Amino acid sequence: MYHTSRHPLTDATPIDRLLDRLLSDSGVLGPLQAHRMGHGDDDHEHGDDAEADILAQFAEQADELHERVVHDHGIFVAEFLGATGSGKTRLIERLIERAPDDEEIGIIVGDVAGEDDATRFRELGVSVANVNTGKECHLDPSLVEGALEDLDLDALDTLYIENVGNMVCPADFPLGAQARVLVVSATEGDDVVRKHPLLFQACDGAVINKVDIAEAVNADLDLMESDVSEIAPEMPTFRTSAEHGDGLDELAAFLDERGHVHASDHEAYVAGTGHTHAHEHNPR
Hints:
Oligomer: single chain
Strand order of the largest sheet: 3-2-4-1-5-6-7
Order of helices and strands: HHEHEHEHEEHEHEH
């Protein structure tokens, strides 16, 4: 099992370590001073530039993950994001339950602490890597890279990544997936979409979950979907009840399409450049 174990007060987080590695040699910032860029006494413009460099480093790591998992091993990767309680785990369970018997599925589960979700997935007979992030409110490529050590990539067809329950932090940290799916629920209130525009704009598809109880919690589903269209005009939105299985056909079809479109794009890339990989891409 892959865990992060750090003392809550004295140990540096993965982001702190990356910041220290990138900046300490220049003497600009100390090991932990840079964690909140632009909020200290250092030049604000330099802070902005340094933060951009760090985010670019994470993006590069995500590209490397994508190359290794998707192209070299032919695995379809879908990341699910959203607040705690939005229904991410239940949606992934439903997708696993409807998968063909010969589809080999792996899960990377990100949680601040515990193994509750990981235990649920193990009971479905899939391969699971559990990542406890401690103080971190999101997964990052280095944590995913570590979690992959617990999975047999040669055996997998599909990899689901369930990010830590958070509607802010994951926006700037892609994980190399072909599809980033943001899940919100009617129980979060029908203003949840417009309160979190950046995360919607960083994803490929949106799910409005728990539609079966929208009336009971006085949530306007049409308003929520309209807000998604305004914030991210090209984003497809799916209304689901993960508990009852409603809307899963449409969501699964979207994921299949993402895999096939990516495979076609990659084949065109290989044809145009002559670059090849160890394995042919075989989505889902």
